[in-house]
Structure formats: structure tokens, C-alpha cells
């Protein structure tokens, strides 16, 4: 920009900016002073400074700023991205505020993490006053034009927001693209799927747009059409492979569809692009553990804890998940030094839980449960029993009783401690309780089906696949052997047991009744006493049980 032109523009804007208040956060004083002078040169007279993330939070509590320029690197424990996320969580930012992250970082991981936090602007150091002026002018104009709509959006007043956005688009307003993307969110939240589809398709008829494809995928996912959502997301990522939020949604849809290995692969792709997102790493830890991939789960869980420290995301779940994963994976670590380090990391996580969440009785309860599971995994039975006894004592003293969302965790710990009957009664009560969420019911039912380690589940899953392959080829003898080997790893799994029964029956159809085969079927059915009428395998179990009773005189 020509210097004379810039000075003229600055003079025009000075009256607009003069009443605004700004905050500059940077670890280096010379940088703070330089940026402060730039802002004052643009007419912003009130400019405060701080060097730390804590300072930004405290300043925003004390005074409502219009503009915040925050460096990614700050003194203290918080970085600029964490500061932005915390300000939003604490509702210390107005919809019209302009939050700019400034950074000299060139690392792709850091830059992608910053961009995913969605600041209003991202300025790469070094920058000139002219660059800052252009960015501020653009953001100020947008903030002024969209202030009413942004206010409605922040308060989730979608019914009022929809006509405001629609009118702006009809008038061919400058911010129509923003309004269209915002309408997708508003239509999703209000269930207006027909108009959402019309909006997105109208745009796609002209050209492929990432937000329109993503909007349709979100709609299908919300309607429960997972396969349609998956197909749409796969198309989106072929066209726009940098649309990072699409990876997260695709992984979620794949997980809900039972395609856990594919979900893990998609999350792996997302982490390669942008690894510094807490929620993504936590999802990876959960999915990879369900797949029996303890090493990937461990790495993701460690990253989850690191990303949570000093951020608004830090919570006891992350530490407990790390302790449980270490308990499962430590024995597979060949190096004694690495194993010792891992065990120390788990112990440290338990210590952190005790210190940072000391005032929460339910967290104390969960810590004792996690400690019991961890100690039991290391063969320290006496210490594990003490930790479990401590958990039982805390549970008995909870004023409002044990929260329902902790019953599964409690039941799992009891089962692992050998108190099978009490654990099964507790978890079965959840499965049969019509007042609790389907998610909790499923968690309880899944554990009753497979109260074994993740690695055992993974081995059983692979052997089951081999058995189904042999069954499809009518190699029933081989299939029976494979199903029985799988059951050694997961003896209570309904699908595995019923696969064994069905294969034995097929073999007897060909070769006639075999007392040994009948005995195998009887024992398999008896292993499924925990299957209730609400279980997805109950109808199949009932049909096979009736067939055995009718054709082979088996009494149950």
C-alpha cells in the first residue's frame, strides 16, 4: 500500500477506532510495544498489554476489549490457542470481538491447530502496520455488518437468525457466503432438512463447495442415514482433502456403523494433517483401544493428556483413560526401561487426579477404581483390594448416591477383582433400566458380552472373521475349530457362541447327529445366560435354542 494512501486511510479510520479498547499479549516486551504503537497509529488509544495467557484471561474478566492480538507463544503455561478456547468457554468474548492470533511459528502442526481454533484472523510474524490495518478494517466491517446475526448465533436463537440470514442473501449482501454457511448450522439445529438440502444442492449445481457437501453429510448423519453420510464425506475428502472436520465426522459415522478399523484409519489421516486437537486424539485413543491396537491407543492417550494440560479441556477422564491403557499395554513393552517409564507415567497420572480434582468426591471414587484396576494388572492384588475398598467406602458416602454414568466403570472394576456375581447384577440392572440412556445400556451390555481385555477382543474378532470365511466355504470342521479358538479369548461373546452353534448344526445336517456336537451347542447356549430380551442377539439365540430343543431334545 502506498504510504500516502495508507496515512489517508488511517486518518479516516481513526475516528472509528478511537473509542475501541485493545489488548496485546506477547511474551516479548519489544513485540508488545511495537504492536501497541501500530494500533495507536491507527487511532486506537486504549491499548493494554500482558505477557501471559493468565494475564489475558484476567484482563478480559476485568474489561471488555474490542480487539485482542494474542501471540501463540506466551509466558506461563497457556498458549494463544488455549487462551482463545478458554475465553470462549468462559463466555468472555462478545460476538463482535476481534480475536487475532499472532505467531512466528512455521510448524504445520501448530499452524493447523491455530486455524482449527478459528480465530477471526491469523497474522504471521513479522507484519507491517499496513497489513494489520487491512486485516482490522476487514474484520471491523464484517463485525459491524454481522453483529446482530452473530449475537443471535452465539445465543443459539436459530429461529430468529434464519430470516436475518435469508434476507441478507436475497439482497445479495456482501456477506452472503457467511450467511449460507450459517444457515446450514441453523437448519441442522432446527431440523429443517428440506430447506437445508435445497440450499446446499443449489450451490452444488453451480460448483462443488466443501461447506455444502459437509452440510449434506451432517444432515444425513443427524437423520441416522450413516451410509449416505459416509458416502458424502468420502466424496468431500476426495475433492477437498484438507477439510479436516470432515475426517472427524467420517470417523464418528464409521464408528457408529461398527467399522472401527476404518474409523481408526480415517482418524490417523486427520492426525497426520492436524495432530494438536484434544478431542481428535482422545477419539483415536478410544477407537484404537477398541480395535486392540494398544500401542496406537497409548500414543494417542499420551497426546490427549499433554494437549489437555493448562487448557480448558483438561479433565479426569483423560488421565483415567491413560492409566487403563498403560495397564493393558505395559506387559507388551519389551524394554524393561520403557516399561518402568510407562508404569511411572500411570502412577503420575493417578497423582495428578488426586491433586487437581481433590474436591470432587466422584472423581476420588473413579481414581480409586482406576488405581485398583491398575494395581491388579501388575499383580499387586492386596493393594488393588485396598484401593477397591476405598472406592466402595466413597460410594457409600455419596450424598446423592452413585451417578448412573459411573455404574459401568464400577461394575467393570468389580468384575476384574473377581466379584463377578455382584458386577453382573449391577450391569444387568442398567441394561434393563428403561430410564437411562441407550449409550449407557450399550456400554453395560458390551461389557457383559466381552469382559476381557482389548487385545483379547481383537484376537477373537480376527478368528471370528476366519471362521465366517470358512463357514461361507462350507468348511464347517475348520470353522468350528476357529470359533472355538476365538471363544478361548472371549468366551461370553453372543455372536461367537451362536456362530459355533449354527456351524455345529450345519455339520450335523450333513453327517447326522453327533453327541459331541450337541454338547458343544448346549454349552455355548448356557454361556449366554446374560443375554436378555433387549439384546440384539436375543431373537437368534431363542431360535437356535428352540431348534436344539425340538430336533435334539436339549433341555435348557
Secondary-structure blueprint of this entry?
Layout: H1 3-17, E1 21-25, H2 29-41, E2 46-50, H3 53-62, E3 67-71, H4 80-89, E4 98-103, H5 108-116, E5 121-124, H6 129-154, H7 158-170, H8 176-190, H9 193-204, H10 210-223, H11 226-239, H12 244-256, H13 260-273, H14 278-290, H15 294-308, H16 316-329, H17 336-356, H18 361-377, H19 381-397, H20 407-416, H21 420-431, H22 438-449, H23 454-472, H24 476-489, H25 494-511, H26 515-526, H27 538-552
Parallel strand pairs: 1-2, 1-3, 3-4, 4-5
Which sequence of strands runs across the widest sheet?
2-1-3-4-5
What Rg do the Cα atoms give?
A: 29 Å
Name given to the CATH homologous superfamily of one domain:
Response regulator
CATH-defined architecture of one domain = 3-Layer(aba) Sandwich
Helix fraction, binned, reads 55-70%
- Say how many strands there are: 5
- The secondary structure category is mainly alpha
The average pLDDT is 94
Strand residue percentage: under 5%
- Contiguous low-pLDDT stretches (5 residues minimum) are none
Biggest sheet character:
5 strands, parallel
List keywords for this structure.
Rossmann fold, TPR repeat, globular, 556 residues, phosphoprotein, Serine Threonine Protein Phosphatase 5, Tetratricopeptide repeat, Chemotaxis protein CheY
Care to give the gist of this entry?
It contains 27 helices and five strands.
Please provide a written account of the structure.
The protein has 556 residues and is mainly α. Among the domains are: 152 residues, 3-Layer(aba) Sandwich (Rossmann fold); 99 residues, Alpha Horseshoe (Serine Threonine Protein Phosphatase 5, Tetratricopeptide repeat). Helices cover 70% and strands 4% of the residues. A five-stranded parallel β-sheet has the order 2-1-3-4-5, sandwiched between helices. Helix 8 runs antiparallel to helix 9 and helix 17 packs antiparallel against helix 18. The longest helix is centred in the first third of the chain and has 26 residues. The radius of gyration is 29 Å and the shape is globular. The termini are far apart.
Amino acid at each position: 500500500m502506498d504510504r500516502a494512501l495508507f496515512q489517508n486511510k488511517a486518518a479516516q479510520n481513526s475516528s472509528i477506532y478511537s473509542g475501541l479498547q485493545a489488548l496485546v499479549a506477547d511474551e516479548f516486551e519489544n513485540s508488545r510495544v511495537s504492536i501497541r504503537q501500530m494500533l495507536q497509529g491507527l487511532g486506537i488509544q486504549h491499548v493494554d498489554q500482558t505477557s501471559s495467557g493468565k494475564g489475558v484471561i484476567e484482563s478480559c474478566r476485568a474489561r471488555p476489549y474490542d480487539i485482542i492480538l494474542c501471540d501463540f507463544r506466551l509466558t506461563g503455561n497457556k498458549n494463544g490457542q488455549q487462551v482463545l478456547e478458554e475465553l470462549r468457554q468462559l463466555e468472555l468474548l462478545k460476538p463482535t470481538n476481534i480475536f487475532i492470533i499472532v505467531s512466528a511459528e512455521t510448524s504445520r502442526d501448530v499452524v493447523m491447530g491455530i486455524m482449527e481454533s478459528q480465530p477471526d484472523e491469523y497474522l504471521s510474524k513479522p507484519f507491517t502496520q499496513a497489513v494489520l490495518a487491512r486485516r482490522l478494517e476487514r474484520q471491523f466491517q464484517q463485525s459491524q455488518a454481522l453483529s446482530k446475526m452473530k449475537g443471535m448465533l452465539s445465543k443459539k436463537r436459530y429461529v430468529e437468525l434464519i430470516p436475518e440470514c435469508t434476507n441478507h442473501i436475497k439482497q445479495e449482501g456482501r456477506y452472503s457466503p457467511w450467511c449460507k454457511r450459517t444457515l446450514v448450522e441453523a437448519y441442522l439445529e432446527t431440523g429443517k432438512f428440506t430447506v437445508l438440502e435445497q440450499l446446499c444442492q443449489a450451490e452444488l449445481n453451480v460448483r462443488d463447495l466443501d461447506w455444502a457437501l459437509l452440510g449434506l453429510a451432517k444432515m444425513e448423519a443427524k437423520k441416522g442415514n450413516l451410509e449416505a453420510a459416509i458416502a458424502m464425506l468420502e466424496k468431500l475428502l476426495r475433492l477437498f482433502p484438507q477439510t479436516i472436520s470432515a475426517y472427524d465426522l467420517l470417523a464418528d459415522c464409521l464408528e457408529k456403523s461398527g467399522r472401527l478399523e476404518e474409523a481408526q484409519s480415517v482418524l490417523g489421516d486427520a492426525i497426520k494433517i492436524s495432530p494438536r486437537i484434544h478431542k481428535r486424539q482422545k477419539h483415536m485413543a478410544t477407537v484404537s483401544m477398541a480395535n486392540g491396537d494398544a500401542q496406537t491407543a497409548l500414543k494417542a492417550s499420551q497426546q490427549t493428556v499433554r494437549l489437555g494440560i493448562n487448557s480448558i479441556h483438561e479433565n479426569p477422564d483423560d488421565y483415567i483413560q491413560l492409566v487403563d491403557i498403560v495397564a493393558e499395554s505395559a506387559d507388551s513393552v519389551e524394554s524393561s526401561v520403557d516399561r518402568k517409564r510407562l508404569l511411572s507415567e500411570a502412577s503420575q497420572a493417578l497423582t495428578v487426579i488426586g491433586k487437581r480434582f481433590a474436591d470432587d468426591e466422584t472423581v476420588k471414587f473413579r481414581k480409586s477404581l482406576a488405581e485398583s484396576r491398575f494395581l491388579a494388572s501388575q499383580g499387586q492384588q492386596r493393594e488393588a483390594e485396598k484401593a477397591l475398598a476405598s472406592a466402595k467406602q466413597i460410594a457409600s458416602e455419596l450424598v446423592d448416591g452413585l451417578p448412573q454414568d459411573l455404574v459401568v466403570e464400577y461394575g467393570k472394576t468389580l468384575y476384574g477383582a473377581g466379584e463377578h456375581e455382584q458386577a453382573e447384577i449391577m450391569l444387568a440392572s442398567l441394561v434393563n433400566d428403561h430410564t437411562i440412556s441407550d449409550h449407557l445400556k450399550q456400554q453395560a451390555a458390551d461389557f457383559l458380552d466381552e469382559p476381557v481385555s482389548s487385545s483379547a477382543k481383537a484376537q477373537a474378532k480376527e478368528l471370528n472373521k476366519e471362521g465366517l470365511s470358512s463357514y461361507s466355504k462350507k468348511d464347517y470342521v475348520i470353522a468350528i475349530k476357529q470359533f472355538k479358538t476365538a471363544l478361548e479369548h472371549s468366551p461370553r461373546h453372543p455372536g461367537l457362541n451362536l456362530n459355533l452353534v449354527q456351524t455345529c448344526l450345519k455339520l450335523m445336517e450333513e453327517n447326522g447327529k453327533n453327541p459331541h456336537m450337541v454338547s458343544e451347542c448346549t454349552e455355548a447356549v448356557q454361556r449366554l445366560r446374560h443375554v436378555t430380551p433387549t439384546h440384539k442377539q436375543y431373537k437368534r439365540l431363542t431360535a437356535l435354542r428352540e431348534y436344539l430343543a425340538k430336533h435334539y431334545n436339549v433341555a435348557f
